[in-house]
Amino acid sequence: MTQTIAITGSAGYIGSNLTDELLKRDYTVIGIDNLSMGLRANFEHLADNPRFTFHDADVRDAARLALACRGADAIIHLAAYKIPRYGGAIDTVQVNAKGAEHVLEIARAHGTRVLLASTSDVYGKNPKLPFNEDGDSVIGPSTVRRWSYAVSKLYTEHLGLAYMEAHKVPVTILRFFGSYGPREHRSWWGGPQSIFIERFLKREPIEIHGDGRQTRSFTYISDTVAGIVAALESKRATGEVFNIGSNEEIAILDLAHLIYRLMDGKGEPPLTIVPYAQLGKYEDVQRRIPDLSKSKELLGFAARWKLEDGLLPTIAWHRAVAARESQKATAAC
Ligand SMILES: NC(=O)c1ccc[n+]([C@@H]2O[C@H](COP(=O)([O-])OP(=O)(O)OC[C@H]3O[C@@H](n4cnc5c(N)ncnc54)[C@H](O)[C@@H]3O)[C@@H](O)[C@H]2O)c1
User: Fold this and answer.
1) DSSP label at 132?
2) Domain 4-184+218-248+288-306 falls under CATH 3.40.190.120
3) 0.85 exceeded by pTM
4) Within 10 Å of residue 56's Cβ, how many Cβ atoms?
5) Where are the domains of the chain?
6) CA distance 18 to 226
7) Residues of the chain whose pLDDT is less than 50?
8) What is the structure's pLDDT at 272?
9) Ligand 1 pocket mutation, candidates 78, 96, 241, criterion most atoms within 8 A of CB
10) Strands 215-217, 249-251: parallel, antiparallel or unpaired by DSSP?
């Protein structure tokens, strides 16, 4: 019998790519999303697939979520709000806390397996690199709202592990490191690579926050999805926390130059340096690299995509979406 997997946040970037992969692997998928940040366009191609159903539901609504998850063998909980960079933190705190609470209650009631999406941000400012799953979370003050995201995900992790201890709910925690690829959100919400590509397409300058020497380890979407599937299908994943990412480290300034070159930009990329002080009360993480030995050993997971190889299809996707939009705008004139 095929397994039924409920995915919260299924219309978003990782959720929709994961949905496609699970359907390819003969799973039945229940997609759940309130479409606040996700798009119908990300799952319209599945309209005739008998193994896919979609529920327009909010994870803060416990009753609707429970109805949507009926019959699921596992719930992959991705629905979340990210770092509140320009807006308030209320959605980040409430959606992430309530969503995790409701998913875990459903799992407790029905004995459902749960995979919880967490983030590299939970390591915060830990200077000990690479980040190991047992390493410390070094979080800044609560008056800096960017930490609300890390704290909401740490709460999710603690709650999941507590449900496992108290109620025997089989829980796995996946800490994703900067994922990029087709269907990423085309704003800062989708990560620096996304906004850099969009700005260069429009021939607009990009903003570099700080001096640009802060580093990240970006992960192509096929690798992120492969890590989730490996955890879903592993018998050794229950009760464990895994880093899912790539350890190819790059400074943000170098990322900007690389993307500009891959987009055939001439000369120097147009950049505006924005000192952190101009961003209000903000703190950044200076270096971010995962230790991937545990996910390799227990899940057999290893990222395959080099950054440059993954950026090419990502840029091609951004170009294709922009071209479709411009055709539509011309047709409407
Ligand atoms: N993309 C990354 O690089 C990255 C890195 C670390 C962690 N994560 C985590 O992975 C998960 C997926 O991230 P993503 O990049 O696909 O984000 P995304 O914003 O593209 O997808 C999240 C989806 O959740 C939905 N959602 C938000 N609030 C909801 C609510 N109240 N009820 C129902 N649906 C709701 C949104 O509409 C969206 O479709 C998130 O939990 C995120 O914190 C992502």
Assistant:
1) P
2) no
3) yes
4) 13
5) 4-184+218-248+288-306
6) 9
7) none
8) 93
9) 78
10) antiparallel
